[in-house]
Specification:
This protein has 5 helices and 7 strands; from the N terminus they run ββαββαβαβαβα. It has 209 residues and is of the alpha/beta class. The protein has one domain: Rossmann fold. Strands 1-3-4-2-5-6-7 form a 7-stranded mixed beta sheet, with helices on both faces. Strand 5, helix 3 and strand 6 form a beta-alpha-beta unit. It is globular, with a radius of gyration of 16 Å.
């Protein structure tokens, strides 16, 4: 059975105090505003409206939980890096993200969504720094890959892998396109590995460790 076959919405939280009990196993999706996070979640789940897709960056302001069954959850975290919000709101989002990714016991792995045309921006690096002390794996989806030529895709993938390897991140990276539905099988396999406790390291040089 596919990992996301029975995914259903269960809860939302504005801050850590509203989170469900810290039990079970969670995979969290996170990324800069407008990087294609909601589209990626919907594509993986084969559901057109599971995660809200908006052309307005910064629209996702809650931590949304979805059950995958068997005590496992998919967590959709608020987008970050969008400047056109009040400073107090931006500060709240960032502190909530930092606290969640660094301290949530149920979190098994992070799926970092980055636009393939603009990967590893300072906000992405900051998120990785918050998460790094946990030692848990992160899988990077380079979304909107269809907007790049094949040569650009290969070059971007190589550069991101090399950078994360030099930074000694426990990370794996792949290209992904919600529009073309490409990269779905690979993403599901990596996420399944994280959820069930396997290392992010894989054959064929996919790991950046």
């Amino acid at each position: 059975m596919k990992l996301f076959a029975n995914v259903v919405y269960t809860a939302s939280a504005h801050d850590l105090a509203q989170l469900p009990p810290d039990v079970g196993a969670e995979i969290a999706f996170v990324g800069r505003s407008n990087a294609g996070k909601s589209s990626a979640i919907n594509t993986l789940a084969n559901h057109s409206r599971l995660a809200f897709v908006s052309k307005t960056p910064g629209r996702t302001q809650l931590i949304n939980f979805f059950s995958l069954g068997n005590g496992n959850s998919l967590v959709d975290l608020p987008g970050y890096g969008y400047a056109k919000v009040p400073p107090a709101v931006k500060a709240h989002w960032e502190q909530t993200l930092a606290d969640y990714v660094s301290g949530r016991e149920a979190l098994r792995g992070l799926v970092l969504i980055m636009d393939a045309r603009h990967p590893l921006r300072p906000a992405d690096e900051r998120l990785l720094d918050w998460y790094a002390p946990t030692g848990k794996p992160v899988h990077c989806l380079l979304t909107k890959a269809d907007k790049l030529t094949r040569n650009e895709q290969a070059s971007t993938l190589r550069q991101v892998k090399d950078t994360l390897r030099l930074q000694q991140r426990n990370a794996s990276v792949q290209l992904f396109s919600a529009l073309k539905k490409s990269g779905v099988a690979e993403a599901e396999a990596r996420i399944s590995d994280m959820l069930y406790g396997k290392s992010a390291a894989h054959e064929n040089g996919a790991s950046c460790q």
